[in-house]
């Protein structure tokens, strides 16, 4: 519905396996309605569940259960500038090698999120804001290795 947000799952990577940055990169096509919308209005939110967290794994709880932490990033989706294209390729192709085989006729290109706000939900409804500067200083874990995501 034109003008209404909706969720979509897109492959993402925050860097090559041994060089996570916390900045989400996406390999997208303008043939996807989500991308068309983002090119008109770049504001988006991305929610990542604690898929590899100790609590959920130890207690065999589904990562989408409200007791498992989830991180929500909001910001503007932008086309990756030429000086970052090589890093974006390494980031995406090292974590998702299958994308190299996607049809070239779809005019794939790279986008990334310029993060403006971050919220951590660590239990039923309890939300804590996190400063972007603190988030980017964090030592990465496998949070973005195999995400389930919603991009609105």
Automatic annotation (TrEMBL):
It comes from the Eukaryota. Keywords: Glycoprotein, Secreted, Signal. GO terms for cellular component: cytoplasm; endomembrane system; extracellular space. Residues 1-137 form the CREG-like beta-barrel domain. It is found in: Secreted. InterPro entries: CREG (IPR014631), CREG_beta-barrel (IPR055343), Split_barrel_FMN-bd (IPR012349). Pfam families: CREG_beta-barrel (PF13883). The keyword Phosphoprotein does not apply. Its main location: secreted. SUPFAM superfamilies: FMN-binding split barrel. Belongs to the CREG family. This is Protein CREG2.
